[in-house]
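Supplementary Methods S3. Complex input for the 2-acetamido-2-deoxy-beta-D-glucopyranose-bound model.
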Amino acid sequence: MFYGLALVFAATLCAAQPSPEELAPLLAGLEAQPAAIERRVPLSTNDPTIAPLIDLQVFAPPAVPKQGTSCTVILLNHTFGDGSFNAPAIVAYVPPTDASCGEVGNWATISMNLSVYSIGTQYDRLGAIYLSHSEIWRTSSAEPTKTGTIWNTIKDVTHFTPLFAKPGDLMMDFSNIIAPDLLLDGVFDVILSATFYVPTEQFPAAISSDTIIPLSNLSPTLPNFFTISDDIGGITNVTLPSSAVEAYIEIFCSGNSAEEFWYLNTPDEFVQDFPESTGVIGKGSFREIQVLVDDKLAGVVWPYAVIYTGGITPSNWRPLTSYGAYDQPTYWVDVTPFIPILLDEQTTHTVTLRVVGQGLTAPSFNSDWFVSGSIHVRTGTSKTTGKITSYNAPALKISTTGGSTPGNTTVWTKVVAHRELDIESELLTSEGKKTVSFSQSLDYVNTAQYADAGWIQWGQQSTVGTTVAKHQGKQVLRDAFSYPLSVFSNYSLYEEQFGGYGSEINQTHIRALQPPIGPYRAIQSIQHARGQIGMDDWPGLRHAINGTGATEQTFAYVDGRGESYFRDVAAKNDGWVRDAVWGTLRDANPPVPRNQIFGPGGGPGFRRMVGRGMR
Ligand SMILES: *[C@@H]1O[C@H](CO)[C@@H](O)[C@H](O)[C@H]1NC(C)=O
Ligand SMILES: *[C@@H]1O[C@H](CO)[C@@H](O)[C@H](O)[C@H]1NC(C)=O
Ligand SMILES: *[C@@H]1O[C@H](CO)[C@@H](O)[C@H](O)[C@H]1NC(C)=O
Ligand SMILES: *[C@@H]1O[C@H](CO)[C@@H](O)[C@H](O)[C@H]1NC(C)=O
Ligand SMILES: *[C@@H]1O[C@H](CO)[C@@H](O)[C@H](O)[C@H]1NC(C)=O
Ligand SMILES: *[C@@H]1O[C@H](CO)[C@@H](O)[C@H](O)[C@H]1NC(C)=O
Ligand SMILES: *[C@@H]1O[C@H](CO)[C@@H](O)[C@H](O)[C@H]1NC(C)=O
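Predicted complex, serialized as structure tokens:
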């Protein structure tokens, strides 16, 4: 039986990925793994997990001057425990004044270090850090061990220099719930620091924007991201400096609650094929984050699916998380072509961050998405004027098809989407006349197969695209990406006492990004994870009482400064199997210590953990 619901069209899936030339140094770097690092002596031991267990998301550390001075400032030292849900820590921020920190606003690099310690039992929780109401970091937590877990992540925040150069408020939301009746006792001890690097001859001061305007709810006390659960989105009134010559929006976004696994959600057309008890979630798998200027589409984000540490099968992600879990990728839209509209003094102006799904009834997605951003503005010396000369934003092309066998014993669905966007403006700026353009070409395919009334699901998703912005012929932004994802999950025995569930996941993040501010970088992360969870009671309060989990990852990074970072790492059953790190940035983010390496069999396994991921 077939339900042909919309026109299927031919999508061009090959054009948009990073070019072979961009991938070559990543692949060559991974090939060139030094033999000396590979020769590890595994600890053949049955000892319990070494405490504290080092848990990590693989990341390339920021490039910093090799000589010269720097200073480190503790921004926040806070415990997120009972009462921290929707109650961010807020502290005053003042730019560092010590001589070792250099001239305020004239730094080579600003790096931030988020260090978290947790002991006990806890779900994965979402965190966000804001400086003067602009989000600068979206993170989540580990599911900690009973003997203590620590995770450190370092992030380059140099492009937020205008915010770091003036006093403001630093807010960190890490909404946690302590509930003894649910045995949730893991608090998060956070130390957040920033290191300011003084420029050197070889590593000059970073070029940043002049002004940063938050796109957030601006609340002085509550998390600043928009919690979006309608088709309207989060709206910010924006007044741009009248001499603006460039304006770029950086966007943070993540699905929460019924949208945490948006890429596995079922098209509404097929939800009724499943019994209600399976709990299949509708509104389909396609999600687009839109940026609108005065309600006119200015750009879109087709996000990479971050899987949190409690996601799909928690045992997959301890101690090696999915890429993005502790430092989520962000996305750029160039709104420079809209500067003439934003500077029109006849009316007030808004920038809207909107989420669009594929639900058949409003809202088009489930509750909810957390979205925020900031506009990075470079100014000139006189008022900018101009006009949009070409605006080509055809409607999203999306088709949904699917079918089932008699009795709906198996069901399949397929969603295909394509988006083109081309905007061009003529600007008259203090730097002269400029033709500026922003274009996007994006392709999406999601296929899903279901068995056992939906308790078993295979989902494959491909998201590829290229975003390019040019100012007077010069490329100022290019984002070429490919995010394949394949998830098999099996909840067949979920409803049985001593039942369980398991999954196998392949996820890749390939991205060549020339951001509008900061150096070019290319990243390839390839992960393969699989695991099983065994549970106790049913119905009633359940615990994961045992399980297995294994994750392997290769990671490659090269940037426009000639820096590189390569990692070949694997973890299994709460222990590190192997960890090799090489490349010029190795020393800033070295492998886990040898005493945490268990060898091929992995660690001692999982004993007491709590179920499926939620906020
Ligand atoms: C953080 O605060 C705790 C408790 O006040 C203190 O013991 C610890 O030294 C502080 N850590 C840092 C790095 O400031
Ligand atoms: C990050 O901060 C933690 C906690 O203060 C510290 O132990 C760690 O050494 C820091 N890492 C780096 C690279 O500075
Ligand atoms: C934005 O401006 C409109 C009127 O132009 C006003 O009604 C609205 O309250 C403003 N929103 C915020 C968040 O300030
Ligand atoms: C199969 O799906 C159809 C259409 O979605 C629905 O009407 C029907 O009740 C389902 N049959 C079974 C046996 O679940
Ligand atoms: C993941 O990739 C491995 C290796 O290519 C393959 O054997 C496995 O079937 C894949 N699993 C899923 C769920 O995609
Ligand atoms: C799902 O898990 C159950 C229980 O472990 C197993 O019997 C079954 O074969 C699995 N199904 C698939 C398709 O792997
Ligand atoms: C998990 O515990 C249950 C109940 O004690 C047991 O039947 C099952 O074999 C265990 N599974 C593993 C993988 O240890």
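The first strand starts at residue 53 and ends at 54. The helical segments are 20-31, 35-38, 161-164, 268-271, 339-342.
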